[in-house]
Amino acid sequence: MFSAARLVASRVATRATSHAIMGALRPPPPSLAYTMRHFSAPPAFLDPAEVLDRIVTVVKNFDQVDPAKVNPAVKFADDLGLDSLDIVEVVMAIEDEFAIEIPDQEADKMSSIADAVEYISTHPMAK
Questions:
Q1: Is the keyword Electron transport in the record (predicted)?
Q2: Catalytic residue among 53, 66, 78, 83
Q3: Distance between CA atoms of 4 and 11, rounded to whole angstroms?
């Protein structure tokens, strides 16, 4: 049979264990620093200078463009004389170069090489 002292000791041990478990389940107080655990690598963006070189090369290789007119500040319609269909084809060539898909809303905003460089260099999936 159980003695009274043994029963009390058993209850005290059970209560101490349950407090230890509950304490482990409680969130830490706000004053403690938190450690974040990332399950993937942070996005790696491409270097804007590399993006600029690659886009200039893509535009220079486009059939309707005079390669001598291409520079980093050039605008597709104003400086190169491209119409809207040609601009769509240039954007598609840029998509192929960087292995991404540019949404139509963003593609409509690309009117120059600088716009394309800004978009591609900040896109986390561009390769």
A1: yes
A2: 83
A3: 11
